[in-house]
Amino acid sequence: MPLGLRSRFVRFGALVVLLASLGAFAPGFAGAQSAPADSVPALAPPRGLVYADVPGDAGLAVELSWTLSPDDSVGTGLVTGYFLERSTAPGGPWTVVDSVVARTASYTDQSIRRDTPYFYRVGVFGPRGSVLAGAAAGPAIGRSSWFHSSRASVLAFLLLFFLLVLYYMYMAQLGRKPFVRRLAGIDAIEEAIGRATEMGRPVLYVPGVQDIDEIQTVAGLVILESVARMTARYDTPLRVPVAYPIPFTIAQEMVRSGHAHAGRPDAYDPDCVQFVSPEQFAYVAAITGIMMREKPAAHIFMGSFYGESLMLAETGFANGAIQVAGTANVHQLPFFVVACDYTLIGEEIFAASAYLSGEARLVGGLKGADMLKLVIVAVVLIGCALETFGIHGLTTWMQTQ
Question: How confident is the model at residue 38 (pLDDT cuts 50, 70, 90)?
Answer without folding.
Answer: low
